Amino acid sequence: MTNSILFLFDCQFLGSIPASLENLTQITSLILFGNHFSGKIPNVFYNLRNLISLDLSGNNFSGQIPPSIGNLTNLYELDFSDNQLEGAIPSSVYGFSSLSYVRLQDNLFNGTIPSWLYTLPSLVELDLSHNKFTGHIGEFQFDSLEKIDLSMNELHGSIPTSIFEFVNLSSLYLSSNNLSGVLETSKFEKLINLTDLDLSNNMLSLTMSVHSNSMLPNIQTLDLSHNNISGMFSWNVGKDTLGRLNLSYNSISGFEMQPWKSMQILDLHSNLLQGKLPTPTNSTYFFSVSHNKLSGEISPLICKASSMGIFDLSHNNLGGMLPHCLGNFSNDLSVLNLRRNQFQGIIPQTFLKGNSFRTLDFNSNQLEGLVPQSLIICKELEVLNLGNNKINDTFPHWLGALPKLQVLVLRSNHFHGQIGFSKIKSPFMSLRIIDLAHNDFEGDLPEMYLRSLKAAMNIDEGNMTRKYMGDDNYQDSMMVTIKGSEIEFVKILNTFTTIDFLSNKFQGVILECIGNLNSLRGLNLSHNYLTGCIPLSFKNLKMLESLDLSSNKLSGRIPQELTSLTFLEVLNLSQNHLIGFIPQGSQFQTFGNDSYYGNPGLCGFPLSNRCTTDEIPYPSQEIEAKFESGFDWKITLMGYGCGLVIGLSLGCLIFLSGKPEWLVWIIDKNIHKKIVRNKRSTRGRGARIS
Description:
Elements: E1 5-7, E2 14-15, E3 29-31, E4 36-40, E5 53-55, E6 60-63, E7 77-79, E8 84-87, E9 101-103, E10 108-112, E11 125-127, E12 132-135, E13 147-149, E14 154-157, E15 171-173, E16 178-184, E17 196-198, E18 203-207, E19 221-223, E20 230-233, E21 244-246, E22 251-255, E23 265-267, E24 274-275, E25 286-288, E26 293-296, E27 310-312, E28 317-321, E29 335-337, E30 342-346, E31 359-361, E32 366-369, E33 383-385, E34 390-391, E35 407-409, E36 416-418, E37 433-435, E38 440-444, H1 447-451, E39 478-482, E40 485-489, E41 498-500, E42 505-509, E43 522-524, E44 529-532, E45 546-548, E46 553-556, E47 570-572, E48 577-581, E49 601-603, H2 621-626, H3 633-636, H4 644-658, H5 661-684
Parallel strand pairs: 1-3, 2-4, 3-5, 4-6, 5-7, 6-8, 7-9, 8-10, 9-11, 10-12, 11-13, 12-14, 13-15, 14-16, 15-17, 16-18, 17-19, 19-21, 20-22, 21-23, 23-25, 24-26, 25-27, 26-28, 27-29, 28-30, 29-31, 30-32, 31-33, 32-34, 33-35, 35-37, 36-38, 37-41, 38-42, 41-43, 42-44, 43-45, 44-46, 45-47, ...
Antiparallel strand pairs: 39-40
């Protein structure tokens, strides 16, 4: 063989590597990455002493690294990454004086990191990330390293002091381990070439040295999130270079904003920050201080942050009036989240034409006035959350023209009047979550809007990509009342649909068209003035998990067809005027008394009120089949959904006027016998009639 390089990149090869590979004694580079090789790596390296580069990455190899790897003393690059290799790395390895690149990430290796990896004199890059290594990180004997990635393992103990001597180190990733100890900022003084430092998801604490200014002059990304850092953070690093700083999920009580010229992402959320709101630099794109204890007002200087894309101040104690510029200070602003503060006054009235708003969340403040009609130009808007404020307005029907609006929350305000009709042909086509609870809406349920909710119909979850609302930088969250409880959805699944009209003044009947919303997960119409029967069309709500129709004026029977709702976990029909047998079977066997109390006309399990023979249940299929010839049960069941009694009466009138009287007598007699017989048999088994 004259060619010393075997390069088979991304050739879609399958199967195992042949053992005859050991005959390629003159080969210097073996590159097989990006194929579909599987099985164990053969132990064929005893005679391949000329090998300089060995790359088997991006395959499906399993098992352990073969011991003959120790014979490759001239090796410069070793890459077994992105396979399914397991076990410990061979420990009896010597003489790798030229080995510079070791990449074993994305495997299933375990055990401790072997000592020979700390003694390689030419080592430039060491990547063991995304494995299951345990134990301490050892001290490195040479300072040639430029990149160390030991993230996503199970390492513990402190960070070795030798790392802080690597003047050539540009990338240090130790995130998602169990590392502990106190780091003094002065330790980083020699790391003048460090650009990326990620120590997140550990148990590290940090102390600020007196002379910690102007350190890490080339740092670009600094991630210390999910640690035990407390007190004041005033580390002045990367004045001209730092672009990403993540200090979230710590116990930091104070933050000193530095004059960073290149800052793009500043994440301080979930700390203990107090005092005034830090003002981001003009270059900042992502700014989050949510879940802190900040107070005071938003500075008008925010209007200069023209690059802002995501601005999250939620869950603080901020107050005062909102700056008028909040709706128009940045064309790139897609998320404005001010939830759970104490802001007063009105919602900003001006929004830029062609803006990028995707999420507007003003929930749980003290905002008042009207919903600004300028929102109509927010064509990218997906989430509008105005809940829990003091807004006094009628239903903003013009929002139905927003083509991408998926979430509309108006709950707990002073909205009033009838929702009525829309001039828009098909309003709210993309709406999946609508929450109008605790307002003063009145009149009939809005049939036109309910018929237009196409996003709540025929969701094919099997053939759609399940994802969460938002993007890689920010995912939406919200409070949802479902299954009788208020739940915070940290992420909103794109298949989740719910309607909540709780505690309004709606009247009239429940619309049959709601049954067309067959992808609905939650439906709450409780505490209104609704009358009539529970629609039979509700049997089509196959995905329904929670149904609350309590505290209305509903009458008639509970449709037996509701037993087909196999996902139903919560049912509340209490405080109505329902009568008759409680349906049995499927999920209905799991509901308790609380689902039905306040309906004195109901009987059967789980209530103590047993049914009598005078309370005729729905006809069984057996009876229907028995009289299929010469008897039209469709006539008898005209009152099937709202009460069997009316239906039987109409059927009898027709028989008496147009059918043989002897047939009427036989049918009546047989039905009576059937009921009595069923009652006796169930008593014999100790069961309840239901």
